[in-house]
Design goal:
With 80 residues, this protein is mostly helical. Helices cover 62% and strands 0% of the residues.
Amino acid sequence: MLRHEFRPGRLLAGATALTVAALYGGDAAGAWHTPWYTALPLTFGGLTLAGLAAWAAYASRRRRAARAVPGERRPAPGEP
């Protein structure tokens, strides 16, 4: 049994941050040259993908919770 549910948005956000850090770490170590403006498109693009993945995961969890008991109407996660 899992300890917690899978969060793909957080996974993508963390992978994006690690990628940007690795690029600038390699630049600082002298392994390659990374332009200063590289972080902006990578960060914004990665966070956009993370947001879309989080939204898709939320929508699938909500649909799964709504059809869990066919005869009974239970509020989906996030509903009042």
